Please model this.
Amino acid sequence: MPVSSPTHPVEDSVSKVNDELAVGSDLKFQQRWWKFERIIWTIFTIFIALNIAGLFGRGPLAKARMRAADGSIDVHYERIERHQSPSVLSVQFGPNAIHDGKVQLWVSESLIRTLGNQRIAPQPETSALDRGGILYTFPATTPPVSVEFALQPASSGTANIALGVPGMRRVSAKVFVMP
Amino acid sequence: MGAVFRAVFGYCFLVFMMRIAGRRPGKQITPFEFVMIFFMGGITLTSMVADDQSFVNAASQILAVALAHYGITVAKLRWPAFGRLVDGTPLVLYDHGHWRAEAMESFRLTPDDVLAMVRDQGLERLDEIDYAILERNGEISIQPQKS
Model:
C-alpha cells in the first residue's frame, strides 16, 4: 500500500493587489518598518559620532589623566579600554619620587590581570609581589622620567586600578573595558 | 564559550544589518552591494575569530552559525510575524503605468532597476507590463500585461 503524507486544502489568505494579483504585501507593516529604519539610521549616526568622540574607547573622551596630590606621579591612561586592543598607560615621575638613583612604583594587580599588561618600558630592575600588587624598581637619574605599560585587556568589564610610589600618595581610577 | 556567543551575535547582527542596509541582493546586486556584503563579512570575522585560531574554535563557530540559521528559519515558519520582520513582505513597485513612489524611494530603487528586469523577461517597454513586484528575496518579478 502506498504511504500517503497528510495534506490540507489551500487557503486563500494571501492579500491581493487590485483584487487580482496575489502578492501578500503588507504596506502598513512596511510603513512601520520604514519608520523604524529611519530611527535606526539616526541611532547608527549617533553611535558612530560617539565612537569617533571616544565614548567606546580609542578617542579623545577615552583619554584621562590622574595626578598624585604630592606630585610624585602623573598618569596618562585610557578610562575606556577595548577587549584585546593594545593601549599605553604612561607614568611620569616627579622629582620627589626619585631616591638614590632609583624610582619605585607600586601597581595594583588589576593592571596586570584585567588590563593585561604585556610589556613595561623601560624594563624594571626588580619586581616583587607586594600588598595585592607588584612593586617595580627602575633605575633613574634626573627628571623627567617616565615608564610605559603596554596594555591589552584579556577580558571585558570594569577594573579598578591603583598606582603609587611607596610612602607617597596613591592614585586610583576605574577603567571600563569594552567587549 | 565566548567564541560561540560571538559567532551567533555576529550572524544575527549581520542579518539585521543586511535587513536595514537594504533589500537589494539577488539579481539586483551590483558591485556596489558586493563591496558592502564582503566588507561587512570580513570585519565581523576579525572579532569572531579573535585570537583563537584553533580548528575547535572554527568548527564550533560554524556549528553555532548553522544552528542560529536553523533557529531563525524554524522561527520564521512558526511565527509569520517574525518572518515578516526578518524578510519583509513583497511590495508592488509598478502598477499599471504608475510607480509606487514610497516603495521605490524607501528601497532606494530606480526605474532603471525595474527596466533591467523588464528586459530580462524579454519585454521592451513598461507599457508591456501590469506589475513589477519587489519580492522578499530582493528580486523584482514582472507580470506581463494580460493580452
